Amino acid sequence: MGKSNDNSRRKFIKNAATGALFATVTPGILSAEPIAAPTILPADAKGANDRIRVAVLGINGRGKSHISEIMGLSKKANVEVAALCDPDMVILQERAKEFQKKYGKEVAIEQDFRKTYDDKSIDAVALATPNHWHALQTIWACQAGKDVYVEKPATHNIYEGKKMIEAAYKYNRIVQHGVQLRSSKAIQEAIKHLEDGLIGRVYMARGLVYRWRPDIGDQGISKVPEGLDYDLWTGPAPMRPFSRNLVHYNWHWHWNYGNGDVGNQGIHETDLCMWGLGVNELPERITSMGGKFLWDDCKEVPEIQTSVYHYPKQKKIIQFEVRNWCTNLEDGAGVGNIFYGDKGYLVVKGYGTYATYLGKDREPGPSRSEDGELTLHFENWFDAIRARDMSIQNGPVQTGHLSSSLAHLGNISYRLGRQLEFDPVAERFVGEGESEANSMLSRNYRAPYILPEIV
């Protein structure tokens, strides 16, 4: 990690400690009391010879990568996957067999993750569950004394991000957000170029999510499959009749559980947009539009979405594009970012690759491509756990709040069909008639899956 990036991360934590990221927002209530923010946590650190035992929650999709990455670091970082949790017992049993075959040992399985949280032998949890579970599972884990790796997006709504930050600091837990680009050596180098002025004054970032998302049809209502605890899967969301259009992946495209592609793949890019622009707060003006132009299926989220986030005081702007079918690339980037300065531009292509183009003639500048960012991101999490030091994290809990909230702001503007004005300090919509927008900062939680107050 370069000195410039290290200083930027510590400045980010310091800004959080001043209260800029800690104003507690409850619908209808605003408390701007800063939260105490130590960066060095109490001395319950694991020694080098103490194995860190991790439970992986959600093992149908991304969780499989969590298992392989953690077990791949088993010797180097002295860690292990000690338990697998999923509300689908059929998948649990399949993964346990795969684990036994690949690693030559058994792994504990548990359908109800809350029982795993009660297990004192589990040190940390890695969350690859649906979006609507991320914040609550993170907060409960912090309360149970577990450190957390939470997949993107860290939250399902803006209010949850405040509660996650409060929980991480109150219970002294290392919460790492799964934006692994922050651990990429190539992308760290790219950000340093931006900070050092390679492309001049950086005034605009463009985020791209061009993914192939086909028609999912409408399978309607059906019987809950054997082995699935659908009540637990639904958790804090409203209870709806079971549909195979929800479980196990297409929940991404329904508002009760997912946040569309800007809140799915897009979180890597919203995070990088803010990082590269050097903004550590949310925008003041947001507008988003789009819709469903391709398929007559049961998706609720837009297939095509264009969002603009304006920072008038900083004279900076973020453009964000979601497309999910046939489209062009932009200088080779289909999933990635483009940063514009007054002396050139920088393109991030996917993971771990960047290129620069300088001046009117677009002369090629520095570039780099390097893999392995996910492994490095997990390794960084384990390093922070052992040191009990938030300041060395590449993806601290604050990044989870900000990058996820940027996506949520765009979605709120899209769903309401109008431009919104936002106070980035109070984190509230402002102006007449914004009670509807402010009501979308949080959600109604279904008992007993209630987001706790952190006092």
Automatic annotation (TrEMBL):
Task: Give the InterPro entries listed for this entry.
Answer: Gfo/Idh/MocA-like_OxRdtase_N, Gfo/Idh/MocA_oxidrdct_glycsds, Gfo/Idh/MocA_OxRdtase_bact_C, NAD(P)-bd_dom_sf, TAT_signal
Taxonomic superkingdom = Bacteria
The Gfo/Idh/MocA-like oxidoreductase bacterial type C-terminal domain covers 221-279, 379-449
Q: Which Pfam families match?
A: GFO_IDH_MocA (PF01408), GFO_IDH_MocA_C2 (PF19051)
Q: Which PROSITE patterns match?
A: TAT
Gfo/Idh/MocA-like oxidoreductase N-terminal domain mapped to chain residues = 52-178
Q: Which SUPFAM superfamilies match?
A: Glyceraldehyde-3-phosphate dehydrogenase-like, C-terminal domain, NAD(P)-binding Rossmann-fold domains
Output the Gene Ontology terms for molecular function: nucleotide binding
Q: What is this protein called?
A: Predicted dehydrogenase
